[in-house]
Fold each of these.
Amino acid sequence: MKIVITGGAGFIGSNLAGALAAHHQVTEIRVIDNLSTGHKANIAHLGVEFFEGDIQDTALLDQVFRGADAVVHLAALPSVPRSLRDPMASHHANATGTLQVLDTARRAGDLHVIAASSSSVYGANPHLPKHEGLTPAPMSPYAVTKLATEAYLSAYHHSFGLPVLPFRFFNVYGPGQRADHAHAAVIPKWIDAVLAGRPVIVFGDGTQTRDFTYVGTVCHVLTEALLRRIVEPHPVNLAFGTCMSLLDLITELEAATGRGARRKHTASRTSDVPHSQADSTRLRAVFPNVTPVPIQEGLRATASWFQGSTTGNAVT
Ligand SMILES: NC(=O)c1ccc[n+]([C@@H]2O[C@H](COP(=O)([O-])OP(=O)(O)OC[C@H]3O[C@@H](n4cnc5c(N)ncnc54)[C@H](O)[C@@H]3O)[C@@H](O)[C@H]2O)c1
């Protein structure tokens, strides 16, 4: 099986490339990435074919997709604050980029397209847990680009019969997720702070909750979806209903790193939703064999990656 990963030099993409490279049914992995947030070093040791370039370059996409069986489309500018600063850039990369990927997949001969959407599409809808039947209420340009991603997948399925599967990722964490940039996620930022003896910065009182999913679990689901060629035009939540407050996360991080954490509270961010938790009914029905890696185990693997004692690829 020949698989293309767009955004494969990024956090989730490079972990997926590592998981697929170890799979006997996968004969070839191609990565296309413009290295805007990803790093070539993430995949250098995996024996994948790397194409440096943008998913909006259709001639390059034609070349990369030729003869492939499936595409896992992860390339995107992934941050909400970034989309507030430059909505057009997010739109071009995430919405227009997805359209280019779908159209190339169609021309290349109906490749199976699995794509990453985001829990941010639920936005202002207060209902918990978040089930896929809820009305989306995006609150940021980023969330709109992810809703457009899902809608384009559905449209290409219904208009052209393209086999698609949109997933809504929640808070994915694990080895390879970096802390050294302005839009770093909470887990890498806090592990880095704890290990360096700096205080962890908590926006608000820390009682907000998130549904954290270990990247190895995400890669397990994506691999099964590829190998079983799961086709589903409606989005599927890719999270297991974990409901952890940020204050509890600090306690778990102390256990995972073996270090004490100092907390510093600052004002809440307006773009943050108070609670995010997936209804995982559909995910569990389609992937009954996937058991999520427990958060304690995932945090230990992540902390040890930060301490430099692993190769940077997640266990599944
Ligand atoms: N990490 C999470 O918690 C999370 C949550 C919800 C959704 N997602 C989605 O999952 C996907 C992967 O996220 P990630 O955390 O690995 O982010 P990441 O930034 O590490 O990876 C994204 C990759 O896409 C590449 N890229 C960006 N624009 C591109 C373009 N125009 N052409 C080619 N390559 C491009 C980047 O260089 C990077 O390597 C994204 O679509 C993101 O929106 C992630």
Amino acid sequence: MKKLLVTGASGFLGWHICQLANRNWEVYGTYFYHTLEISNVKMLKVDLVNFSELKQVFNEIKPEAVIHTAALSQPNYCQNNPQESYTINVNVPSNIAGLCADNLIPCVFTSTDLVFDGLNAPYKEIDPVCPINIYGEHKVMAEQKMLEEYPQTAVCRMPLMFGAATPTASSFIQPFIQTLQQGKELNLFVDEFRTPVSGTTAAKGLLLALEKVNGLIHLGGKERISRYEFGRLLIEVFQLPAAGLKACRQEDVKMAAPRPIDVSLDSSKAFALGYQPLPLREELEALVRQSSGG
Ligand SMILES: NC(=O)c1ccc[n+]([C@@H]2O[C@H](COP(=O)([O-])OP(=O)(O)OC[C@H]3O[C@@H](n4cnc5c(N)ncnc54)[C@H](OP(=O)(O)O)[C@@H]3O)[C@@H](O)[C@H]2O)c1
């Protein structure tokens, strides 16, 4: 089997990629703070910011493909820590693209729908970028630097993702479920729209991009949904107490990073290549079956 390096295997998406990729690849996964074991994956502790450490990984393992998911993924944190965000979200991906170029191996990068301002959705790959927060700005810089270093890079713009909690990471649905189960109030935006997918679907899309994509690709889901409507669907499928769910608007909540209203992605290019996100209800039903051991 060929060797695949997955950075950020201790993160939400990296873990989901490892679960699928280890069937067809010899997978090497990196972590930094969060130590973990994944079956059939060789785990490596790497500070990706340290270039000589990163280069050593390439020299020793000699990966035949790389999926780079490691990042500072919280927009509010990046807004308050721009230098750290620049180092991890711009310098590291640029270095990884350079190393992939040196070795002429496929390189997949996880960018974001937050490269757009949210005023002209749905967005296609040809639409101009216009980020409104530092996280989005840094992802745009990373995209540009990677494509300069190595035009064959598959730059995958990911939507909001949800799924089962992993041993060391979770998605936004876990705090939602906990809040409702505790009978507390859960305020969700009626005016913020996304095209979410599950971590498993996203992982399938990235493995497809690894085989078939050079340049930009959108890996959004097929349904545009508000945070509030997503919450309602979650309550229905997971049979959660509904009393706590309250509708609110973006302007009601002050956050460090400005949030675009609607960054729904038009992912028809990926659909034509065989990317097939399931309806959200089916994705959530699969999570219920999984959590009950079915
Ligand atoms: N989650 C979403 O809804 C979403 C949406 C759009 C795009 N994305 C993008 O998709 C990718 C994956 O997101 P995610 O939610 O899976 O992220 P996550 O759960 O926050 O995981 C981040 C990963 O990055 C690693 N990391 C951070 N700094 C590092 C460093 N200096 N050296 C080595 N590793 C480091 C972390 O390792 P340790 O924890 O072990 O330190 C962790 O494995 C990111 O590029 C993110 O920007 C995510």
